[in-house]
Design brief:
With 394 residues, the chain is α+β, with helices and mostly antiparallel strands. The protein contains 11 helices and 12 strands. It has a 4-stranded mixed β-sheet with strand order 3-6-7-10. A 4-stranded antiparallel β-sheet has the order 4-5-9-8, covered by helices on one side. A two-stranded antiparallel sheet has the order 1-2. Strand 4 and strand 5 (163-174) form a beta hairpin. The longest helix is centred in the middle third of the chain and has 35 residues, at 243-277. It starts with 10 loop residues before the first helix and ends in a 6-residue tail after the last helix.
Length: 394
């Protein structure tokens, strides 16, 4: 694949040559995502991050590219492969984690919940509108008292005649102040169940969380649910117990496996370019052995991370992917992306802490990515359980 076909192409494309491992349609999705992200998001993202501005005017353009729910089949969705979706996540997060998160919240969480567990009526009503960006969704699972133990959620849904009444609170819910619907998970007499909650329902209140030092160009919210009354058909009938929300979380975790490597690539690109421009002791710092060793080590971890993502994507497309592999990928990608960001910053010197380079922004965002959709510790326990057959969660 000629590097002339890629805007702002880097030496990484030639050294790694990932595209030699991809199918033509996968390359097409990667190209589309890179061109969109580099053209529409990259020029404004530093200013948006600084001003805490979510550029919602881009949503119709993102929808027009077919990125929303792109891995779903039918209902106005693109029906692309898992690998293609992963590549879109990589290219999007290469400009900012917040925009990959937007695509993930919409497609992997809210839309996937309806697609996996909803009735045909629910799917036919919501999914085509969401794929077009006409209706926005959010996913309410995490609660203020803690996100890693959803089995003990405090939000309840009580059957009262022909209605459901939901009370509780959620926290760190992406897009909630903009969403037209929320997928709310609540404890019932029948265990954890999922509900489609139109956000204009009386008793539903979403408030954006301020004071963030990470993910500043995106929206995360608190949700209050005060006697939110819904019709009986608001429930997602196919989701019973924690397997419901976890089925969606694993979709989102898969996107992170690729996305975090996009952030890593952006940091590595910045370090490589700066190593050739910045001079000390009369020559570029990239000519020094220690700098080249840093670049080589970062490249090694980036390539390993992307190859792991590709392996997991191929498993997902083949229908052979297991939960432990998702945890392996999420744990590795975010952990190594953060290491790459920190090492890249050292090559940039003092200028690396400024908005002139994307590294500190990516580093800050990755701290959030490391926490959501399962902390390092949660994924270590998932992998440990797979290795030993013993449950160490409690």
């Amino acid at each position: 694949m000629s590097t002339a076909e890629f805007p702002d192409v880097s030496v990484m494309d030639e050294v790694f040559d990932l595209h030699a491992l991809l199918q033509p349609d996968e390359i097409e999705w990667a190209l589309k995502a890179r061109r969109f992200a580099q053209t529409h998001i990259r020029p404004v993202i530093e200013d948006d991050f600084d001003k805490k501005y979510f550029r919602k005017e881009l949503i119709p353009l993102i929808a027009k590219q077919g990125f929303l729910g792109m891995h779903l089949k039918g209902y106005g969705c693109a029906g692309a492969s898992a690998v293609s979706y992963g590549l879109v996540c990589l290219e999007t997060e290469a400009v900012d984690s917040g925009w990959r998160t937007f695509i993930s919240v919409m497609g992997s969480l809210a839309m996937s919940a309806i697609y996996k567990y909803g009735t045909e009526e629910q799917k036919n009503y919501w999914l085509p509108q969401m794929a077009k960006g006409e209706k926005l969704g959010c996913f309410g699972l995490t609660e203020p008292q803690g996100g890693s133990d959803p089995a003990n959620m405090l939000t309840t849904a009580t059957k009262v005649g022909d209605t459901w009444v939901i009370n509780g609170a959620k926290r760190w819910i992406g897009l909630a102040t903009l969403a037209d619907l929320a997928i709310i998970w609540a404890m019932t007499d029948d265990g954890v169940r999922g509900f489609i909650v139109p956000t204009d329902t009386p008793g539903f209140k979403a408030t954006a969380i301020d004071g963030k030092l990470s993910m500043r160009a995106s929206i995360q919210c608190e949700i209050e649910l005060d006697n939110v009354t819904l019709p009986a058909d608001a429930i997602l009938p196919g989701a019973k117990g924690l397997s419901g929300p976890f089925g969606c979380l694993n979709e989102a975790r898969y996107g992170i496996i690729w996305g975090a490597m996009g952030a890593a690539r952006a940091c590595l690109d910045a370090a490589i370019n700066r190593s050739k421009d910045r001079e000390v002791f009369g020559k570029p710092i990239g000519s020094f052995q220690l700098t080249q060793a840093k670049l080589a080590d970062m490249t090694l971890e980036y390539e390993k991370g992307v190859l792991l993502a590709l392996h997991i994507g191929r498993q997902k497309d083949a229908g052979t992917l297991n939960i432990a592999q998702i945890s392996v990928g999420k744990l590795n990608s975010v952990r190594e992306a953060l290491k790459i960001a920190r090492e890249a910053r050292t090559i940039l010197g003092g200028d690396g802490i400024t908005g002139e380079f994307p590294v500190m922004r990516h580093m800050a965002n990755l701290e959030s990515v490391r926490t959501y959709e399962g902390t390092d510790e949660i994924h270590q326990l998932v992998i440990g359980r797979a290795l030993t057959g013993l449950n160490a969660f409690s």
